[in-house]
Write a structure and sequence with these properties.
about 160 residues; alpha+beta; Jelly Rolls; 2 domains; four-stranded antiparallel beta sheet; 10 strands; about 35% strand
Length: about 160
Amino acid sequence: MHVFACGSMSRRLTRRLLAVAVAVVCLAVAACSARTKQQEICAERSQRNLLSAQLKPWIPSPAFAVTSGATVWVRVTTLPIDADGLFGTVGGVAQLHTVKAASPPQIATEDGHKVAKDPSVVIKKASQWQQLKLQPGTWRIYSVTNPAVEVVACPHDS
């Protein structure tokens, strides 16, 4: 019969737990750093300009049409005035809301403040294209701030 000292058992258990923890951390780091292929915008010659506008807070842009089979892309060309605040662009450079052209924006007032209720997309970086998932139809976009934006469409096969 073997009798283990409490300290010996504790050291073995600590080593095993440490080894498991290191393995888990290594797997997590590997998973997070694995690069997934990002979809890229089509060549400039294939792009169809849908909108180029300086947005005004809470006011929808002019309407633009998305055709069937098109992939829509958006980028912020001029940062909104609040992008250089205390936290800068940590949460993205702008939040854009999409609304069908025939519908008014869904804006509520909560605790005395306007709140946009339409679907939105956070634009992560200025001057970088980001896909905007829109169904075929006529759309407008708006923001609670004032970014300048460009929206283009790429043909489905490019």
